[in-house]
Amino acid sequence: MFWLSTRKFFRAGDAGWASYVDFIGLPQLEEVRTIDGMLNEVVSDGNVGMASLEEMPEVLSFLQKAVAGESYYLLFADAERFPVAERPDLIFLGYDLSDETWTSSLLNCGVWENELAPIAQRVNKFGLLSLEDARLAQGLLPQIWNGDPHAFVTVWALFELVSVS
Predict the structure, then answer these.
(1) How many CB atoms lie within 10 A of CB 45?
(2) Are 97 and 24 in contact (CB under 8 A)?
(3) Dihedrals φ, ψ of 77, to 5°?
(4) pLDDT digits over 88-118, tens only?
(5) What dihedral angle (degrees, nearest 10) is formed by the CA atoms of 117, 111, 16, 18?
(6) How many structural domains compose the chain?
(7) Quick check: helix, strand or coil at residue 2?
(8) Cβ atoms of residues 48 and 59 within 8 Å
(9) Structural domain span for residue 134
């Protein structure tokens, strides 16, 4: 299953940014892209599921249009089950981790400590991980966060859809 939605940007200078980067312990971040709707708010219409990427034009026809500088189209999929081939209309953003509620364990559960700390420090400019680091964190979280529901995660591949007419 692939998911597509229109999302608001969350960047340095936005309301709540300073307290957010303090909470997450990543002051170097300048922007966050995530499947977590608390951080990249879904503009409207929710996350729309698609069985294949061929359904994208139809889904885009009823999603609220992305507005330059304010919002973007986020495409995401389970990185292990639904790999996305390189396409000219997609910009790869990185990998996020979330539980079944789509709360980002990486970007919305506080500072990563212990063995997770060096992984968190390797996030890219969007606050996302490499596949290797995402898989490493996925294996460590249940041990370190013992029993926390946010420890049982899916690795998500995130893309920005561009070149939409």
Answers:
(1) 13
(2) no
(3) -155, 155
(4) 999 999 999 999 999 999 999 999 999 999 9
(5) -60
(6) 1
(7) strand
(8) yes
(9) 2-161
Number of other residues whose CB lies within 10 A of the CB of residue 65: 10
Residues 42 and 5: their CA atoms lie apart, in Å, by 7
> What is the pairing mode between strands 10-11 and 2-8?
unpaired
Computed over every residue of the chain, the mean pLDDT equals 94
Tokens for 99, please give them.
Answer: 């539980």
Angle at 65 between CA 63 and CA 69, to 5 degrees: 140
Q: Is the pTM of this model over 0.85?
A: yes
Among residues 158, 155, 159, which one has the least CA distance to residue 106? 155
For the stretch 115-137, pLDDT in tens is 999 999 999 999 999 999 999 99
